[in-house]
Amino acid sequence: MAGTDEEAVAAADDALYVLTAVLLTPAKFPSVLGDDYPEACAALGLAPLADGYGLVLGQDGEGARWTVVIDDVSLVAVAIASWDCGMEYDLSPDERTVVAALPGWPLLVAVAAPGVPAPHDPDPEDADGPPLAPPDTTTWGAAQRRLGADEIALQWAIWREQIDDAAFRRPGDDASDATDEAGADGAADGTAGAEEAEEGEREGHVGIRRVLAEARSYVDSPPPLGRVRSSFAPGDARTLRADGPGWSLVARTDDIAFVLLDDEPGEVLPVGRGPELPGLLEALDKMAVRPL
Hints:
By secondary structure, the protein is α+β, with helices and mostly antiparallel strands. The chain has helices at residues 6-13, 37-43, 73-84, 142-154, 156-160, 177-181, 194-197, 206-220, 277-287, and strands spanning 17-24, 53-59, 65-70, 98-103, 186-187, 228-232, 238-244, 247-252, 257-261, 267-271.
């Protein structure tokens, strides 16, 4: 990759038309790139700096795709917040903040700069290494699983209203604590609901038991930075996101959780409160990284 190649940095900085920007920090990073912050950084060939980076995606005057990595995280955060509010913001990073200029884009970008050729990868001689490309999400796998978890966190109310609490076992039933927490499963396309829930839970679902056990292990042995993240939720609750090898968990600290597994394509597995989930979520929230 381009890394510290001065010519590549200069090429990307010359008339770069900024299309979008994202944060790459321990508390907020494109989860499609990895289960944790160091893994996401490694996908771009970057060292996992404690303060993180801002990624500026754009095109040069020839239409070539470039990802400019800067260390001015606050600048990118302000730009994103302004755009989210429908305000204009001219994101023009200072050359002194540029860490690297990487050919290509690591994420899908649906827009293009006007007045320049269509987006394409830079000429090989202008870049030191192969261009970045978005992870393949056309088939179920880790990247698609993490995107699914992103969607659940973003549309929590829609997913939650499709789950009938009566489908979960209540404490005191003749089942283990792990079984009490294992819920019914539904499709990842948003169709999970009462019909699926009425079929009853998968007693002692092996995948859910494994996820809960691994999540509990994080409390005693902290995982790589960014594996557990906490963000805003309505009221006094927090939205929790935890990831691990082959799984993602999304939860509200005052509610249930949803689990997605690499081994179960397209499935979303609700996890009821049960006797242990509240304590687990509280412990995870205490150790989770949070946006500044």
